[in-house]
Amino acid sequence: MRRWGLILALSVIIFLSAFFSYRNLSGGCRATISRYLKDSRPSSSDQISLIYLIKSVHLCCRPCYDYERYNKDDQLDVIFYVDADFSDADIENFRTAFQINPNHKVARKDKAIKDICRVCEKKNENSNFLLIINEKGDLFDLKRF
Amino acid sequence: MRAKLISFFLLFSIASYLTAQPIRKVLLRQDESFQPVATGIGFKATPWLESDGRSLLFTADNRAHSIYVLTDKGNLIYSNDRRGQGPGDLQSPWKLEFSADSLFVCDMNGLSIFSKDLVFKGRMRLFKDVYSIAASDKHVFIVEGQSQALITAYDYSGKEVGSFGDRYHIDPYNGEGPITFRTYDTVYHLSNLVYGQNRVYFVSQILGDIFVYAEDGRLLKKREFLEEQRIINNKKVLLSPGLPDLKTIGANSRIFGDAQWADGYIYALVFQLHKKGSEIWEIDGTSLNVKAIYEFTHNSEFNTGSLAVMLENGLPIFFLSIWNRESGDVEIAKYAIPSSSAQGRR
Questions:
Q1: For residue B159, how many C-alpha atoms fall within 13 Å in the half-sphere facing its CB?
Q2: What does DSSP assign to residue B90?
Q3: Quick check: B146 and A125 CB within 8 A?
Q4: What are phi and psi of B167, to 5 degrees?
Q5: How many other C-beta atoms can be found within 10 angstroms of the C-beta atom of residue A95?
Q6: How far is A136 from chain B (nearest CA, A)?
Q7: Which residues of chain A neighbour B129 with C-beta distances below 8 Å?
């Protein structure tokens, strides 16, 4: 009887490990983003929106992916999440350097956004991401830059 | 009347000739060389140097992601080798500036500010190429790539407080060919910024010009050094109409590899005149005239990196980071003015 209990416990442990590993390795990043979008997106929103997760950008070598296509669009819902230790001056300088449209938001990463970055970065801590969200509020595309 | 005018000009010319001081040439004495074994630091790259002007030498090793504080005798007293992006972490530090008891370290994370014992004080993010920095006790001045003005001034919190100065004119770039606009911009604006006497000095590395600005951005003075043949060649190539062929200015095109301020003078490191030596020009901070040329030699072939200057008994001591081409070692060589040349220096 004791042996069956041990086997059962081991099976549960192996199953749970495999389940969480699978979640992390295959769908971890997208799944985390989808959960975030489900939880955070206002139900009234029905347009395409962009979320930039900024870690390290440079005007010349590492520009904000495709932003020159979007920065003239006042109606587009765009938000840049920068690291939590960006000062107000850093945010202002970021806006100036990248000519961020005044209607587009720049905010510091909160816990939920940090979780997305942690899962999606994997081993590359310097990654920036662009999340393209469709009208339904689902993740349409994910770019790493 | 005409005779009076002529005699006035004659007298003025004679007085100018008699009072004009010739440029002194002094061969520096190499005092010490801080070898890796002595300092306990195995430099992986020729370090950037800076000093507090009195007794501390700051060094940045780009490849080791580290900064070190040494005494003027080469003893290591503080170090920071934390690689990363967190507060106080370093990523390829490559430029140092010291002002108002603060050490400014330019790296991939931005511009971090440390106390002289390397306690982290703060950081400002930088989003453009940085060609040179200088700092006063209130402001940081940066020559950045892709900017409208030559120099941008920030306060210590990173807030932009102004920009000033005209950039060199670069003819319209059609975006074709292997050379990017960024490369042209770098060649024209590669520089050393020096702060002293409430003025900001822009020292062009390749064109050899010095522009002096008041802190409010007014241009006070310009100086060209057309006695140096390499400067004439570079100007001919870069300032002629049309986009220049950068190959024609050659690999050895940098004139002023580094520049530092001490006691009313700009000390400009003339980049690699020959394989075993070069010069440091002592340029008066007010007149911008060269007062002395300090020659230095090394017993091996070397590449110079950076220059730091300290004052001892009113005389400058020079520290040069050197990559020894023969042994492959990186070292910091210390040079002084020989006592025979020190008397009646100014």
A1: 5
A2: B
A3: no
A4: -80, 160
A5: 15
A6: 34
A7: 58-60
Q: Rounded to an integer, what distance in angstroms lies between the CA atom of residue A25 and that of residue B206? A: 51
Q: Decide if B249 contacts B262 (C-beta within 8 A).
A: no
What letter represents residue B129's amino acid? Answer: D
Nearest to B293 by CA among B272, B279, B275: B279
Q: Convert the pLDDT of each residue in B279-297 to its tens digit.
A: 999 999 999 999 999 999 9
Residue B284 distance to chain A (closest CA, Å): 36
pTM: 0.85
* CB proximity B182 to A under 8 Å: yes
Cite the beta strand spans of chain A per DSSP E: 49-53, 77-82, 105-108, 129-133, 139-144
DSSP state of A140: E
How far apart are alpha carbons B280 and B290 in whole angstroms? 10
Q: Quick one: A76 exposed, middle or buried, by C-beta within 10 A (0-12, 13-18, 19+)?
A: middle
The model's pLDDT over A83-136, given as tens digits with 9 standing for 90+, comes to: 999 999 999 999 999 999 999 999 999 998 998 898 888 777 788 999 998 888
CA diameter of chain B: 76
- C-alpha A61/C-alpha B303 separation (Å) is 28
Question: Do B30 and B333 meet the contact criterion of CB atoms below 8 Å apart?
Answer: yes
ipTM: 0.78
**Dist CA A102 CA A91 (whole Å):** 12
Q: Which backbone phi and psi does B11 adopt, to 5 degrees?
A: -60, -40
**Cross-chain residue pair B127–A98, CB shorter than 8 Å:** yes
| Rounded Cα distance, B312 and B289, in Å | 23
